[in-house]
Amino acid sequence: MRQTVLLTSVQEYEGALNFATDAWTSPNHKAYVAVTVHFEHKGVPISMLLDLVEVARSHSGVNLAETFANILEEFGIQDKVSFNIIALNKIENLPRLSDAQYYLR
């Protein structure tokens, strides 16, 4: 029930949402990415995990952008993205802004 309320809050949120991702490779060589969403609701900061998925291919910027776009579409929030990007660790994995925008169309 709580997840449904939070998801509805995310979908009905007025304005851009903030997202964070983390990608890693497991010891058995499977690639994963987690996507979280962050926003404020009635003055209270809200953070929630949207999805944790196995990436079928490598952690290239294009693959991560495509996975991110698919998750946003699945939750119906692809039009609420703010393109403020901060990259930590592997900058070469950061998709070009044009790649991310392509997948969010």
Provide the fold topology.
Elements: H1 2-12, E1 18-25, E2 31-41, E3 44-55, H2 61-75, H3 97-103
Structure in words:
With 105 residues, the protein is α+β, with helices and mostly antiparallel strands. The protein has one domain (2-90). The chain is built from three helices and three strands. It has helices at residues 2-12, 61-75, 97-103, and strands spanning 18-25, 31-41, 44-55. It has a three-stranded antiparallel β-sheet with strand order 1-2-3. The longest helix has 15 residues, at 61-75. The protein starts with a helix and ends with a helix. The model has no long low-confidence stretch (mean pLDDT 75).
Which range does the strand content fall in? 25-35%
Rg from C-alpha positions? 14 Å
> Stretches where pLDDT falls below 50 for ≥5 residues?
none
The number of E-state strands comes to 3
In helices, the fraction of residues equals 25-40%
Tell the overall outline.
elongated
| Strand ordering within the main sheet | 1-2-3
- Structural class designation: alpha+beta
Q: What number is the mean pLDDT?
A: 75
Task: For this entry, give a set of tags.
single chain, 105 residues, alpha+beta, three-stranded antiparallel beta sheet
Summarize the structure.
The chain has 105 residues and is of the alpha+beta class. It contains 3 helices and 3 strands, in the order αβββαα.
